[in-house]
Design brief:
0% of the residues lie in helices and 58% in strands. With 208 residues, it is mostly beta strands. The mean pLDDT is 89.
């Protein structure tokens, strides 16, 4: 569903998995690990990447990624990523449309000082929100519904808008030490209606 915002992976350069005593770095000390997603950064050389993917159930995703120097002999660099998703699903009724935009600028304030600031915006509009469990007969047997059966309604829609602003100031010290300050502000709003069904059906009457 669209109630949990997910930015397009085109905005990120890589995913890092940090294993071990993650309680020392985050969380409340339970065993586990930390997943760190690293945003794309501007490149020193101009580059343009265009991607288009098509798939089953009218799936279409477009992506434009442009980067390069902006000013001051390359000491100011920028990058912008635009993605657009339009897709149906194997389930009837369900449909998602999502335009997303990411932009970031880097500026070399001094030889060892780097300022980064940027923003991302995602709009997700979904039809067929909800669904619930696949119903079965009261004795546990399969009703025999096709995999494409929708357990929601066409009027069950949801629309989410998410904006993220971020900035970082990094200063390189001696012996490969770094001092880094990060700030991020995220806002999100959701408006929608949902429909779902649950429970078993009586084999004789079909009531549930």
């Amino acid at each position: 569903g669209s109630t949990n915002q997910e930015y397009d992976t085109a905005f990120y350069d890589r995913v890092e998995v940090m294993r071990g005593a993650s309680g020392l770095l985050g969380g409340v000390g339970d065993p586990g690990g930390i997943i760190n997603v690293v945003r794309k950064k501007p490149l020193a050389e101009p580059r343009l990447v265009v991607e288009q993917s098509l798939g089953r159930w009218d799936h279409s995703r477009s992506m434009l990624d442009v980067t390069g120097p902006l000013a001051l002999d390359g000491r100011v660099r920028g990058r912008a990523v635009l993605s657009y998703l339009d897709t149906d699903y194997h389930v009837d009724i369900k449909h998602t449309r999502s335009p997303q935009l990411y932009g970031v600028i880097e500026a070399d304030l001094a030889r060892d000082t780097l300022l980064t600031f940027g923003a991302s915006r995602a709009n997700v509009k979904a039809r067929g929100e909800g669904g619930g469990d696949v119903p079965r007969y009261a004795d546990g047997s399969d009703i025999g519904l096709p995999r494409s059966t929708a357990h929601t309604q066409p009027w069950a829609t949801g629309e989410r808008h998410t904006t993220e602003l971020f900035a970082a100031l990094e200063h390189r010290l001696a012996n490969r030490w770094k001092l880094k300050l990060n700030a991020t502000r995220s806002t999100s709003d959701y408006d929608g209606s949902t429909a779902f069904g649950y429970g078993a059906l009586d084999r004789a009457t079909g009531a549930g």
